[in-house]
Amino acid sequence: MRLLLVEDNRELAGWLARNLRLANYVVDVVHDGEDADLALGVTEYALVILDLSLPKLDGLAVLRRLRQRGDLVPVIVLTANASLSGRIAGLDEGADDYIAKPFEMEELEARIRAQLRRANRRADPQISCGALSFDSNTRLFRLGDQPLALTPREHAVLEQLLMKMGQTVSKAALSESIFDFDNPADTSAIEIYVHRLRKKLEGSGVQIMTLRGLGYLLQNAD
């Protein structure tokens, strides 16, 4: 899952990004509204964490432009302004949730999980494909009753395939979901991660099928 974090306080942004990456999210970080608007115009994100008090272009303007483009990506607004009018302004411009600074990381992560479940139309945090299961609360995969050890990028590829279970996912879409600004997208590397995942899923009945020219499909062969 690739997230966009928009926060002008670089120390806070760095701390948030580190914690989110430890939770196996791919995170892009920008520090002003103009860069946020540009990133949102060219990249597909699973969720946006947006500060309102931004240089160059304020958070409400970023949010307004996003919704005017018809982009329905979930947006969690961060702000030091916890007033009722401030909350209403954010929600009226299209925010999905609102959290006032200071906040606990655990609460932000829980709000992220809730918004991602809503966006994927899943009420149950447990998602399964045969013997493979993923708990969106702990963000851990299991194969049968055993934890499945994955690198961060293997995790990102498998999560994307599981979320789109039964649908074909292109190499380009997988690549965009696992590479951030600091690591340019590389569609050829997807083949390596898929190969490694197939080895780890071997014998489980869960398969990653290649549909030539289209992409990959996760399915339960049993």
TrEMBL record:
Response regulatory domain: residues covered: 2-116
SMART domains: REC (SM00448), Trans_reg_C (SM00862)
Listed GO MF terms: phosphorelay response regulator activity; transcription cis-regulatory region binding
Annotated keywords: DNA-binding, Phosphoprotein, Transcription, Transcription regulation, Two-component regulatory system
Modified residue annotations for 4-aspartylphosphate: 51
Family matches, as Pfam families: Response_reg, Trans_reg_C
DNA-binding region: 124-220
Span of domain OmpR/PhoB-type: 124-220
A single GO BP: regulation of DNA-templated transcription
One GO location term (cellular component): cytosol
Name recorded for this polypeptide: Two-component system, OmpR family, response regulator TctD
Source organism: Faunimonas pinastri
